[in-house]
Design brief:
The chain is mostly helical and 144 residues long. It is 78% helix and 0% strand. It has four helices and no strands. Bound molecules: fe (ii) ion (2 copies).
C-alpha cells in the first residue's frame, strides 16, 4: 500500500472540508432557528451529521495509514443574510467538495489505489446528491 504525502494531503484537505461543512451547517441551523424556520434548521443539523460521518471515514483512512488527521485552520462559516443566500453559499461549498474529491479519486486511480479511489468516489457521489438537494431547494424558494 502506498502511503505518499499527496494521498495524506488529499485526505487531510478532505477532512478539513468536512469539518468546515459541519461548522457551516450547524451555524446556519442556529440562524434558521432564530429566523423561525425550524424544519430547515433540523434538516441542516442532519446534514451536518452526514458530513461528520464523512469526516469519520477520512479519519479512519488516515489512521489506517498510520497518520493522525490534521485538518488545520478551518475557514469561517459562511452564513448568508437570507435563506436564498445561504443555499447559494452551500451549493458553492458542495461544488468545491465534489471538485476536490473527483481530483483525489483521479489521483488514486492513476496510482492504482482502488481502496482510496472508491472512498473519494463515494464522497463525491454523496456530495453530488447533497448538491442536487440544495439546488432543488433553491428552485422552490420560500419566504425567509
Ligand atoms: Fe461531506
Ligand atoms: Fe455535503
Amino acid at each position: 500500500m502506498m502511503t505518499d504525502a499527496r494521498l495524506t494531503g488529499y485526505l487531510n484537505r478532505a477532512a478539513a472540508h468536512e469539518l468546515g461543512a459541519v461548522q457551516q451547517y450547524l451555524a446556519q441551523a442556529r440562524l434558521l432557528h432564530y429566523w423561525g424556520i425550524q424544519d430547515l434548521a433540523q434538516q441542516f443539523e442532519a446534514d451536518a451529521q452526514e458530513e461528520l460521518t464523512h469526516f469519520s471515514l477520512l479519519a479512519d483512512a488516515l489512521v489506517s495509514l498510520g497518520s493522525a488527521p490534521q485538518a488545520g485552520l478551518l475557514p469561517a462559516a459562511r452564513l448568508g443574510r437570507t435563506l436564498q443566500e445561504m443555499l447559494v453559499l452551500n451549493c458553492e461549498l458542495e461544488v468545491s467538495a465534489i471538485r476536490l474529491y473527483e481530483e483525489a479519486a483521479g489521483y488514486c486511480a492513476r496510482w492504482r489505489d482502488a481502496r482510496h479511489q472508491e472512498l473519494f468516489a463515494h464522497l463525491a457521489r454523496d456530495e453530488a446528491e447533497h448538491l442536487q438537494m440544495l439546488e432543488q431547494m433553491l428552485r422552490q424558494p420560500r419566504a425567509a
